[in-house]
Amino acid sequence: MSLTRTVSIVSILFFFVLFLSPIHASARVDLKTLDPSIMGDTLAAFHLSTSSTFPPALLGNIYLFDILNKESYDGSDFFFLEIKYPESEDGMHGRRRIYFYNAVKSMWEELPSIDNPETASVRALIHLPYARLAIFEDEVPEVGEASWYAYKDCDCAASPDYPKGSYLVVTSVEDSEKSVTVMVNDYGPDRAVHPDRIIDLDKVAFAKLASLGLGLIDVRVRLLQ
């Protein structure tokens, strides 16, 4: 059974930030939390249709929202929808994005999304007055701990997820202004020993993000394409 409730434009699940939108603060939204099994067939089809080696996986529930006073919104403007992570966590996770179910095409489609581990939420641009939404997570982890080692004194790193020769952009979670581009030249860390560690940076690269004295820092790792 789904859980249904009517709430104001701001709820514990959804935070709407409106820009140049005809929706007023008095607008009301009907929110439902749906058990993923209700959309099981669509999720199976989604995994079969993706060409990715690591297809995104559903994270948490499926959410249904419906703007009740639709006369206040004609669909001509976009607004931002922010969904909090299902639960607080400190471990690694892959990039998270918001998808909506396109009933016309019978498929899940990605919304332009920004994953923000600092606020433990995902924000997306949307213009739909009604939609089934869900957070999907890439299987390749993107956020986790980084350590450092002294080896070749270069902007390089060891990664258990990307092959040697790959270029990665590593960004500090604490200070998003600090980033370094590294080349993978080794394998590691061993997830069996360090389950929350996403990458090992050469000390030269680590020092561009934080003091070596910290030992470990939280970072976001993205493949440079």
UniProtKB/TrEMBL annotation:
RlpA-like protein double-psi beta-barrel domain residues: 153-221
PANTHER family assigned to the protein according to its UniProt record, in alphabetical order: ENDOLYTIC PEPTIDOGLYCAN TRANSGLYCOSYLASE RLPA
Pfam family, one: DPBB_1
Domain of life per record: Bacteria
Protein name: RlpA-like protein double-psi beta-barrel domain-containing protein
Gene3D superfamilies (alphabetical): RlpA-like domain
InterPro entries from the UniProt entry: RlpA-like_DPBB, RlpA-like_sf
